[in-house]
Amino acid sequence: MFTGIVEELGEVVAVEELAESSRFRLRGPLVTEGARHGDSIAVNGVCLTVVDTADGEFTADVMAETLKRSGLGALSAGDRVNLERPMALGGRLGGHIVQGHVDGTGTITERVPGENWEIVRIAAPGGLTRYIVEKGSITVDGVSLTVVEAGEADFTVSLIPTTLALTTLGVKGVGDPVNLEVDVLAKYVERLLGHRAAAGTAGVGTAGVGTAEAAAGTAEPAEALR
């Protein structure tokens, strides 16, 4: 589990194309300190498993599904990446709960610089916009951000100077892709409400309530409808 607080701006050292995956070698002295085989490190918001480490670098295998659903497939040697280690149990939750499971990729469509911040507009896949709400949380390239405005097809975030200086969001331009992970709590709520609605519909007439009684409104509601 991550928090969306980027620890280090790392660099892609090499990408090796394999049969149905790619092996990435990335430089990040801070996040690799103490890292071992099997540990997790988030790369642009994607949770990857460490294969090995050496001299401030680590390697990770990225499967075809991950390459397809995220922007990692477009990375090449020399590209900068946001790196974060998992949150330690009992540590501070500086951002929000981030799984490192990218839901899809968005596209930067506008950047509006201000005196002390910059507003960035991002187009999101239609299936994700229902989870994005004003003043809610969203992860963009592994960075925990607060949504400023939520539209039908896009949303905006405000980037402070620290975010601009210490993450990839400071250098990405209009047209560039970004990895998006919506708030997992929204997905759980949607799933639970969907099951409840389905159970409620099925519960009418199947929990010992006769049709005539239900129509007359004299029967107690089924447990599934409470």
What distinguishing features does this structure have?
single chain, 226 residues, alpha+beta, six-stranded antiparallel barrel, 12 strands, globular
Explain what the structure shows:
With 226 residues, the protein is of the alpha+beta class. The protein has 5 helices and 12 strands. The chain has helices spanning 29-32, 64-69, 161-166, 184-203, 211-216; strands at residues 8-17, 21-27, 40-43, 46-54, 57-63, 80-84, 104-113, 118-123, 137-140, 143-150, 154-159, 177-182. The strands form 2 sheets. It has a 6-stranded antiparallel β-barrel. The radius of gyration is 22 Å and the shape is globular. The two termini are 34 Å apart. Mean pLDDT is 87; it is low at 206-226.
Compute the number of strand runs: 12
Q: Helices and strands: which structural class?
A: alpha+beta
Mean pLDDT across all amino acids = 87
Helices, by number, come to: 5
Instruction: Assess the beta-strand content as a share of residues.
Output: 35-45%
For the largest beta-sheet, the strand count, sense and barrel status come to: 6 strands, antiparallel, barrel
- Overall, the morphology is globular
